[in-house]
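HUMAN: Mind sharing a backbone?

ASSISTANT:
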Amino acid sequence: MGKAYRGLNAYIYAVTGITVLAGTMLFSQNYTTHADNSAVDVVAITVPSSCTLGGVVDSAHNATILSGEYKQSIGQTTIKAFCNDSGGYIIFAIGVSGGIDGQTDLISAFNTNYNIHTGTATSGATSAWAMKLTAGTVTNATDGINATPPTIASDSNGSYASYHVVPNTYTMVAYRQSQTDMNADITASGSYLTTTYQVYANGAQPAGTYSGKVKYAMMHPYSSDTLKSIKMALDEAQGTETITKDGVQYYTMQSMTSAICNATTIIGEASQIKLIDKRDNNIYWVAKLEDGHCWMTQNLSLDLEATPTNVAALTSENTDLTTYGSKNYDTSNGYACSNPSTTTNCTAVNEVITWIPERGTIMGNNLNNTIWPNDNSNPYSYDSGVAVVDGDDSYDGHKYVGNYYNWTAAIASNNSGAFTSSTLNNVANNPQNSICPKGWRLPTIANNTNFPGTVAGSPNEFRRLNVIYNDNSASSATGLMNSPLYFSRSGYILNGTLSGPGTYGSYWSSTVNNSNYAYSLYLHSDGADPENYNFRHRGRSVRCVVR
């Protein structure tokens, strides 16, 4: 071997018979070869954020308290915080008594003048209630993870680790600045908070029942400062409408847009709000869910009238009627343009479209197989007049039964015969009209092989909810029926009768199977089928999602 010489920060090795220089090898036999660039594999793995916040009531927050008495440690809820965001997370809280964000009273069922306001008094002339948080961890013995508990926050009123007033705006109550030891599996490990409350009733507090709520929401990473509920997004939006009913002001369902939903950063029940449908003044819970969409979280209750009197005329100004091709707007489908003599297919700019249902909603005990035949092409709907299937209204209206619609009525048509071919592989071919409010639409069901529900943004929307909230289970419907979705087994119409209330439930999509069938979410006694298809003539429930 020869000597090595340094020059210009590179080494040249002199070896008998061979000189190596800049990738070129010169052999003594005068053969010349060139070394190609090496192959380089770039491996990039992305682990998405998986953060959830869920509560389990360990003991109910109920107490009987005498006038002049003080009680603390009233009930306990464990709020589990799982988050793999290395930037940490923040947990916020807000009082929402009576369904109103920022309402921090325990509301009197007798008279609101006697509400118990939030405060930390334990004696004296002023009744008060307060909240307290305690931090802890969940340990998994299998993988040895023992997560660091969150830090309980403080403000000018003290620490939430002691009894503290209930905040009237979204306020940070706990946080973790870094989050590197979490397991996203909710059964494995993570941090948790326990909540409890205290109440003091002064000597003059009237007898009665007093109730209130506190919502908790998670944001991540820790530096996040854009916490926004649907109400906050509506407050900031332009062109929204409100209607006052029974002394309470509500934003309209028709005020919701995709931009407002996208601006909402709080997910789940903490995001929810009651909105009013300006067509009939019915009020609905809505929430932004983990699939990124804003959904109704109770069933649609719109009555249809062939000659509208109690219900506003269904037009493109208040109903999901869009200019999407002539097949949706021929005379047989029952659509009329504001100027049909010049625009027979409602294609003019700003054209108002009206749908006049050829049949009104069947009411109460009038349902039978003559008035609701097994008709796959014409619209039928039914209002049972029953509020909830089991008579239990403890869900604050989320599980109201609502109305039942056959598929033709659900897509706002008087004749759905034009839709004969499956749209499972291309939901863009679904009917684009529905009885949902303007700005809302029917959910879509798509081929799970081509559009798996495990993929964010999948048009297989019921499957997507089932993946997120029900662990993609077919053997259970629990995750879909609980907070924040509240789907219910409200039954369906079969052969002119209400079948299986309390046992079965079914929700229409806009996806076509064939000239007789359409797709739906089906809840049954053994579980859930998010890609079910069956006869269009059956009456099913409707949940709408923001366009």
About this structure: The chain has five helices and 35 strands. The longest strand covers residues 70-83.
